[in-house]
# Entry
Amino acid sequence: MKNRSLLLLLLSATIITSCSKKLTGPYALTNKVYKHQTDSLVTILKQAGPPILLDSLGKNIPGDWVGTVNFNLRKPNYVIIHYTAQDSLPQTLRTFTLVKPQVSAHYVIGKDGRVIHMLNDYLRAWHAGISKWGSISDMNSLSIGIELDNNGNEPFAPAQMKSLLLLLTQLKRSYNIPTANFIGHADIAPPRKPDPGKYFPWMLLAQKGFGYWPDTVLVPAPPEFDSTTALRLIGYDTSNLPAAITAFKRHFVQTDDTPELTPCDLDVLYNVYRKY
Ligand SMILES: [Zn+2]
# Structure
């Protein structure tokens, strides 16, 4: 009996040792959850069957399943840029690996330029929340979310911007993302979100082919120029017009974000709208 207890003790010690060998590092456990969840998605992808349709009397409408041979995964077509509004990179990583906050992003970039990939680009992260851009009301399904470690009240670090530009270059090429489709969280959720904020260098991004920026010389907006329609054509949800104007100015004006369009703001809007 004594020997058997000793054997069990040794066996459990061996199991614990071998488990602890596999699970190392602060995110070993959540990485395991990630793997389990992606495995469960494969099960969903493999489901195949006829549509179940009912007529007005509740009777089955006959259907069939015939698998096509021509398909691949849907691609992201937008990039949404955020700031974390948190105090450190580890704090953000912790938030995105906890279940309770229900938020995530595909990439997080630290101030030192370190890029952390947190979700396969083809999967749907939870970064956009309630949002609208043009007729798109489910931006999470169409986009890659990039979070920049920044508390919202400080300039973005040069090393961070360098990594962001490299990442954007790769994403644009991989998924053929149009120039206009590199936008910020504030653009798609004007009443709720201010990020990436007035310090974000949209001009630099536009120079590299990610999003637009007004030209240096502006043609004055004509007297009949309809600013609300122009904002809507760019993509802004104008149901809350002051919020839409503030979001536009945070992105394309940046010197102030008051919810009014000055004559100079109107010229900027006219210039930007003609690029879309
Ligand atoms: Zn955001």
